Amino acid sequence: MKMFRSRSWFGGGWGRPKNPHSLEHLKYLYNVLSRNQTVSEHNRELLVETLRSIAEILIWGDQNDSSVFDFFLEKNMLSFFLRIMRQRSGGSNYVCVQLLQTLNILFENIRNETSLYYLLSNNHVNSIIVHKFDFSNEEVMAYYISFLKTLSLKLNAHTIHFFYNEHTNDFPLYTEAIKFFNHPETMVRIAVRTLTLNVYKVDDASMLAFIRDRTAAPYFSNIAWFIGKHIQELDMCVRNEADHHSQNRLADLVAEHLDHLHYINDILCLNITDLNHVLTDHLLHKLLIPLYIYSLASHRRKSSLPEGVNQAVAKILSKTLSRPDSPRLQDPLSGRVSCVVALFLLSQVFLILSHSPLVQSLAWIILKTDSTVLDKGVNKLLEHYESEKKLLEDSMNNEASAVNFTSKEALLEDLRNITDEEKEKLAKNPSENVAMHKPFLETVYSALDCSENDYGALFALCLLYAMANNKGITSDVIEQVLKPKKSFMSKCSSKDIKYSYNVYLVEKLLLIISLACQPTCRIRLVTLEISLKLLLHLVICDGKNILLEPHRAVIETAKSQSMTLLRNFYKSEEIFLDMFEHEYCDMSKSSLNVEWLCMDSAILLPPAGTPLTGIDFIKRLPCGESEKARRAIRLYFLMRNTVLTLSGEMETQLPLTNPQSCVQIEQALDLSISHNSDLIACTVLYKDGMKMRRFLVIDVLQLILVEPDNKRLGWGVAKLVGFLQDIEVTGDKDDSRCLHITIHRPISGATTNRVPLLSAKFLFDDNIRCMAAKQRLTKGRLKARQKKMQHIARLLEIPGQSGPPSPAFTGQGLYTCRATGRNLRENRQLFTASRAPGFAAPKRESSPGVLHRADESRRHRDGDSPHRLSNLRKELNPSPSSNNVKKETRSREASSSRTKSREGSPKMPRPRSEEIPLELIKKASHSIIDMAPKINILPRPQSAKTESEPCASGLINDNAQSKESGVLKETTTISEETSFIGDRQSDKKSEEREAV
Question: Phi-psi bin for 728: left (phi > 0), alpha (psi -120 to 50), beta?
Answer without folding.
Answer: beta
